[in-house]
Each structure stands twice: as structure tokens, then as C-alpha cells.
Structure to design on (536 residues):
């Protein structure tokens, strides 16, 4: 797809150029040390086009995604600020969107958010004033129509030029409905979509074929989510304990066949094979690398998967 | 109906600590139907409190009375004579409307809620109740195959199912069904994906509790 740029986002420029995009992920600390953000950022600079800054993921309190995003940008990264609907109502979200762009954020990833039952404050009240699809609509309205949900107009120079992202999960249920939910995100105005961690390649191929068939990949850039398995234990945990993630037995068996100390290496190898297939898969515009608390392996994986050097845009 | 359940008996015992004369007031409305605060449950609670006092050698009188409803002043008025008998505590076994109405009508009395009011729901089977409504004040269940995602989805999503829906259950617990799984499955079975494709508009919550405490005035009924 070719089109005019809507924002100053580097990620948008890479995608519009037709290059295979690479995004990373950085989880803010559970305290206020800017140093930790800078340390994690070091591994990502030059290796990704943009980095997702998670918003209190798994409902555990962390440094805000806006603050950590700005710290990451100081280190030379481009932040993709995640925003969940769990903790803020439309007033707070619109306000933060205005503030985020004023401070230099160019990408937003709109999410519903993990339920607080999982987190460190299960006694809290949740919000869910909007859902993720509604949030995408609101950001697009602010950017393209120049108004808030209230109807309040934004002057041309005061409209947040945000590149709008969403998430998709082909591995949640019901399987046949997943592509239709993604279609709603595309219709809402998502510019790009990043998937949940992919392990079940058969199911992902089926999903992408449908998305291509429905013309969704012509309207929105689809990035494939990759999280290398560190160990057999992690593979089993993901399979049995994380709702909405499927790990096929063939992968478990493959890791079983490798000595424990070589399993991480094998996990990286599997991820690189996946990335190679994504590069060739119709409708896939890039990969989203989620190396959770394993950020220092990003340089290795982008090198082995031949994702570097990143294009200069 | 409103589904409630009795508070833990220790909490109720705490309410009447040091008191000698107690009245337990039931309600023949919703809480009778959900077996939480009808005549039978009033009898059980009163017996529990008497036995407990007897065991400790305490002097305690527990009287019982069940009103037609505790959410209507005309029935609350019926308690006038009983209240004159000077109780140290009145335990309401209605939903939380009941003890509030009692407290307003009899401001000098010590009124305690003996039930926890849980949700608006229905009986799935004998002894099993589930939430079905959050009283948002603007019902749109016809858009969701007759199911309410506001009350029955953990995140009240209007455009679900979220990425945590797995095997028909919600990400928060295997005990919680994913209502969006049921909605989406129904839509697909009925081949209605096209009419279901439009995005559900952003909800106006002002008719919900978010708009402030609510009140309905039906002019034709007001004397």
C-alpha cells in the first residue's frame, strides 16, 4: 500500500516506504529510576524502528508509559506509547493524548488492558469507559477531524498527529471470529496492528489468509508478534497458563529434544525461522519483538534474523 | 431481581455485641426469592443468634418479623408498633434499600444491614444465581444476541471478545464464561456477521450511575 504520511512517526515512514518494519517492547520499571529505562533502551537503539512502552501491563503498577516513553526517546528510540482503557476514562485519555503529542510522542497503541484481577491492585475499581476499538475511533477523530469526543474543536496546529496502533490476537477464541474483530479495528481507523506472541504458525497462516482475503492488509499494516521461548519451562507455562496464547506440541517437543543449557539458543533459532517466514508471508508488514525482561537479546535476534541495519527514514 | 446473600454470621454478631433485645426484619421481595432474607432466613438467623447467646450465657431476646417489602414506605410503616417495644438493634434482611428506608422512617433506631446486596441477576439453577444487568439505564442487549456485555463481560466491552477469551471462558477465571464467546458464536451460527460488523458506538454512561444518583418521577402516578 502507498499513501501520504499522516504523522511524523518513524514507524509510519518505514511502513509506508515498504520496508519490513521492526518494533520492540520496553516494560517500564516498578519504581521511578530513569536509569533502568535507559539501560533497557540501550539494547534497542538502532535495532528497532519504534518501541512499545507498556502501560501498567498485567495491571501491575509501573512508571507511566508516557514518562517512560519520553525517557526512551531521550535515548534515541521512538516510543509507541501504549494506552489501556482499564485505568482512565475518556476525559483522562483525551487529555493524555494531547499531552503526549505535545511532548513528542508520535505513536499510540490503543488497548483494552488486562483485567486488574491479575495485577498488584486487585481491589481497585476499573474504568473501561471506552473499549480499545472506541479508543482508536477517538484518536482518529482528534487527529483527522480535529475535535474531541465532546465536539470541542482542536485548532489545526493543536491536533495530535498520532500514528494509531491496535493489537490483534488470532489465538484467542472463537477462532473464526477473530478476523472479524480485527476488521472492526481496521474500520475504526487503526494504522497498524501488532499481534499477540505467535507460536502456532498454522493458526497464524489461516488467520492472515483470511485478513488478506478480506482486504484488511491493504488498509492497515499488520505486524507479527514474536517472543522467543527461553526454555521448555517457559513454553509449558505459556501453553498452560496464559489465556489467549497457544503453543503447539511440536514446539514443546523440539525444545524437549535440546539440553537445558541450549534451549534459549534453540528458542532464538525458532524465532528467526518464524521471522524469515513472516518476511515472505503475504499481508505481514513487519515484526513486533516482545523480549520480555530479555531486552539484551534483541541485538542478537535482529542480527541473526537479518533485520539490521534498520532503514534510515 | 436483586440478588443478595447473608453477611457472615460473625459480622452480624459484631453488630449486636452487648445488646439485649434485637429485631430481625425480613422482606418478601427479591431476597425471599433468592433465599437470602425471607421469613425462613429470618428464622434461621434469629435462631443462630439465640443459640450463640445461650451458649455464652448471655441474655438476648430476638424477635422476628417479615414485611411485604422494605422498599416501600407503606410497608415500613407497619413496623411502628414493634419498634415502640424499644429494640437495641434492628437487623434488616432486605437488600440495602431496606435498612436505608428503615433508618429514614425510624431515625432513632440502630439499624444494621444483615445482607450484602450483590447484583441484578437471575437463577441459573436452584441455588445458583448470576449477574445479568448493571442498570446502565439504556438497554441495548438486542444488539448482542440478547446478552448483556456490560454486566457479563469483565471489561464491559462493547466490541469484544478481547484477546483473553479462551475456550469459552474469561481470562479472569475459568469459572467465568466469556459472554463475547457466546455472542460471537451465536452471530456466526446465524450467519449475521454482516449486520454485526458495524462498530458499537461509544456508550453514553450518563444514564448509568456515572450520571449521579438516579430517580424516576412518573407524573401520572404522583398524587
Amino acid at each position: 500500500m502507498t499513501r501520504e504520511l499522516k504523522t511524523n512517526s518513524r514507524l509510519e515512514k518505514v511502513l509506508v516506504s515498504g520496508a519490513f518494519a521492526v518494533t520492540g517492547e520496553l516494560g517500564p520499571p516498578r519504581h521511578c529510576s530513569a536509569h533502568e529505562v535507559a539501560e533497557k533502551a540501550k539494547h534497542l537503539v538502532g535495532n528497532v524502528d519504534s518501541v512499545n512502552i507498556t502501560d501498567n501491563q498485567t495491571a501491575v503498577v509501573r512508571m507511566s508509559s508516557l514518562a517512560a516513553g519520553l525517557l526512551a526517546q531521550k535515548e534515541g528510540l521512538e516510543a509507541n506509547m501504549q494506552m489501556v482503557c482499564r485505568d482512565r476514562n475518556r476525559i483522562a485519555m483525551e487529555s493524555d493524548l494531547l499531552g503526549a503529542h505535545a511532548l513528542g510522542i508520535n505513536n499510540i497503541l490503543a488497548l483494552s488492558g488486562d483485567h486488574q484481577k491479575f495485577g498488584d491492585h486487585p481491589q481497585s475499581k476499573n474504568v473501561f469507559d471506552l473499549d480499545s476499538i472506541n479508543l482508536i475511533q477517538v484518536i482518529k477523530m482528534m487527529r483527522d477531524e480535529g475535535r474531541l469526543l465532546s465536539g470541542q474543536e482542536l485548532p489545526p496546529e493543536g491536533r495530535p498527529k498520532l500514528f494509531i496502533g491496535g493489537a490483534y490476537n488470532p489465538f484467542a477464541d472463537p477462532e473464526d471470529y477473530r478476523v472479524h474483530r480485527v476488521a472492526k479495528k481496521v474500520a475504526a481507523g487503526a494504522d497498524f496492528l501488532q499481534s499477540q506472541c505467535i507460536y502456532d504458525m498454522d493458526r497464524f497462516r489461516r488467520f492472515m489468509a483470511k485478513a488478506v482475503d478480506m482486504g484488511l492488509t491493504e488498509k492497515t499494516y499488520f505486524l507479527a508478534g514474536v517472543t522467543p521461548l527461553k526454555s521448555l519451562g517457559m513454553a509449558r507455562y505459556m501453553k498452560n497458563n496464559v489465556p489467549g496464547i497457544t503453543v503447539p506440541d511440536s514446539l514443546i517437543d523440539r525444545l524437549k529434544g535440546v539440553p537445558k543449557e541450549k534451549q534459549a539458543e534453540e528458542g532464538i533459532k525458532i524465532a528467526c525461522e518464524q521471522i524469515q517466514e513472516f518476511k515472505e508471508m503475504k499481508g505481514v508488514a513487519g515484526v513486533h519483538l516482545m523480549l520480555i525482561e530479555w531486552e539484551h537479546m534483541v541485538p542478537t535476534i535482529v542480527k541473526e534474523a537479518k533485520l539490521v541495519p534498520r532503514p534510515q527514514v | 431481581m436483586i440478588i443478595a446473600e447473608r453477611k457472615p454470621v460473625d459480622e452480624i454478631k459484631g453488630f449486636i455485641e452487648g445488646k439485649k433485645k434485637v429485631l430481625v426484619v425480613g422482606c418478601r421481595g427479591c431476597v425471599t426469592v433468592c433465599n437470602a432474607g425471607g421469613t425462613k432466613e429470618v428464622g434461621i438467623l434469629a435462631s443462630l443468634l439465640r443459640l450463640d447467646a445461650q451458649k455464652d450465657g448471655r441474655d438476648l431476646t430476638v424477635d422476628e418479623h417479615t414485611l411485604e417489602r422494605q422498599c416501600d414506605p407503606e410497608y415500613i410503616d407497619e413496623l411502628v408498633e414493634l419498634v415502640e417495644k424499644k429494640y437495641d438493634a434492628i437487623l434488616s434482611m432486605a437488600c440495602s434499600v431496606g435498612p436505608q428506608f428503615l433508618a429514614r422512617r425510624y431515625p432513632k433506631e440502630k439499624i444494621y444491614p444483615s445482607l450484602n446486596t450483590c447484583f441484578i441477576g437471575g437463577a441459573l439453577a436452584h441455588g445458583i444465581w448470576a449477574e445479568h444487568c448493571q442498570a446502565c439505564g439504556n438497554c441495548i442487549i438486542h444488539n448482542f444476541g440478547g446478552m448483556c456485555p456490560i454486566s457479563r463481560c469483565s471489561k464491559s466491552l462493547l466490541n469484544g471478545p478481547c484477546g483473553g477469551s479462551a475456550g469459552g471462558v474469561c481470562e479472569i477465571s475459568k469459572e467465568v464464561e466469556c459472554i463475547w464467546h457466546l455472542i460471537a458464536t451465536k452471530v456466526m451460527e446465524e450467519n449475521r456477521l454482516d449486520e454485526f460488523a458495524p462498530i458499537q458506538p461509544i456508550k453514553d454512561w450518563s444514564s448509568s450511575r456515572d450520571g449521579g444518583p438516579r430517580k424516576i418521577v412518573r407524573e401520572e402516578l404522583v398524587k
User: Anything to note?
Assistant: The longest strand of chain A covers residues 21-26.
